[in-house]
Design brief:
Number of helices: 15
CATH class: Mainly Alpha
Strand content: under 5%
Number of domains: 1
Structural class: mainly alpha
Order of helices and strands: HHHHHHHHHHHHHHH
Number of strands: 0
């Protein structure tokens, strides 16, 4: 009998492909952020309706992950991820030609159903190849390099919006997806050598998800990830309306304020990559929670102070605390993911999918909340960011319990 070859040795191509797969999610949300007010005007939609193009993406992303995880556990990562990115390319094309806001919302949901294959299976591939602390460190390295995707997205999107219009942002995503499918077909080596032929059995799927839901520490780590991302998504979904509509920035200037936050994320991810092996996952999560809470509290304090005026200086006062939050997010995100996935090598796809489902469900919730609560001031945005940081603290205190004796 042939010996199981095990997972492939890590290489630069695998690293690059994982980065591209994980980056497809941020690119899908960040590239068109400077266009959101223009999309609302072009398609005759209000803030809540336009914001649904983001929330619909997150809801579809959340539910589709629950299928991709077991599919990849059964059939392997490679065929499933190629099919998902192909779906993404077709959906992006539909978004580019959307004649109405309802069409665009539906197209964004279909786009998410393809994009989530990249994010879920990118994480699962890392878990296939690396161990517990190694996976957290690798995800941090991926995150630090991938930080250029959300940095590039709004800047490029702002330039495209000003010079060509919002539809061309979706055309760029079509091109990106086509190139990625070609690279995956030629270069991606299968990493799942522990396939579970029963992973798609409804009873087995429910049993796997029930096992994960009953695991207190898994849920704690996953909720740290979800809460942290909810704070980021509060900024993603609300910043263009606050900074462009309320504070008067132009789309291209707005994009550079988003870059400020990405620098914070990059800094945090670099710290995580350097310190996780030394301090461990739990300590890094505590540090990340403290920094996020400080940033969220400062942001709300500025929003309530009256110092955030309709000017570039007012925008700086609001966004600098968000950049601090993003340092904590960069530290905690890969460590939360690594902690959640480590104990479940036999169902890494399902564990990654359930974690991603919670992450996107929280994001959709805060996005909808912002759309309905926004009052023309930065208060709602800042309040959601702080609430997300406090939810991370609660997840650590009551579920992970990093300082409890085991």
């Amino acid at each position: 009998m042939a010996e199981n070859p095990g997972p492939p040795k890590p290489g630069r191509m695998l690293f690059a492909l994982v980065i591209a797969l994980v980056a497809i999610g941020p690119l899908s949300t960040d590239l068109y952020l400077p266009s959101l007010p223009a999309i609302g005007r072009a398609l005759a939609a209000d803030v809540a309706g336009t914001q649904l193009t983001l929330s619909a993406f997150m809801v579809a992303f959340a539910f589709a992950q629950l299928a991709y995880g077991p599919l990849s556990d059964c059939y392997g990562r490679r065929p499933v991820v190629i099919a998902g990115i192909a779906i993404y390319a077709l959906a992006s094309l539909a978004c580019a030609f959307a004649p109405s806001i309802d069409w665009l919302i539906a197209g964004r949901a279909a786009q998410a159903a393809g994009a989530c294959a990249g994010v879920v299976l990118g994480r699962a591939i890392v878990r296939d190849v690396y161990g517990r602390e190694g996976a957290a460190r690798m995800l941090a390295l991926v995150g630090s390099v991938m930080a250029f995707a959300p940095a590039l997205g709004p800047v490029l999107g702002g330039i495209v919006e000003v010079n060509f219009g919002w539809r061309w942002n979706f055309a760029l995503l079509v091109a990106f997806a086509i190139v990625l499918v070609a690279l995956l077909a030629r270069k991606l080596v299968e990493t799942n050598h522990r396939r579970d032929p029963r992973a798609l059995d409804p009873v087995a799927m429910l049993r796997n998800y029930a096992t994960l839901l009953r695991d207190r520490r898994y849920m704690g780590y996953a909720l740290c990830v979800a809460a942290g991302y909810a704070g980021l998504f509060s900024f993603i979904s609300g910043s263009s309306f606050v900074l462009i509509d309320d504070l008067g920035l132009t789309p291209d200037v707005y994009s550079w304020f988003f870059v400020m936050c990405v620098v914070g994320y990059f800094t945090g991810a670099q710290l995580a990559a350097r310190l996780t092996m030394r301090l461990g996952i739990d300590r890094m999560l505590v540090i990340g929670a403290a920094i996020k809470t400080a940033g969220g509290a400062a942001m709300l304090g500025m929003a309530l102070s009256g110092l955030v005026t309709a000017s570039v200086a007012g925008a700086v006062i609001l966004v600098v605390p968000m950049a601090v939050y993003m340092i904590g997010f960069g530290i905690s995100m890969p460590n939360g993911q690594g902690g959640a996935l480590a104990p479940f090598p036999h169902m890494a796809g399902a564990a990654s999918a359930l974690m991603g489902f919670q992450q996107m469900a929280w994001a959709a919730g805060v996005g909808i909340a912002f759309g309905h609560l926004h009052d023309g001031t930065p208060r709602v945005l800042a309040g959601l960011v702080l609430a997300s940081a406090l939810a991370h603290v609660a997840s650590l205190a009551f579920l992970v319990r990093p300082f409890a004796k085991r």
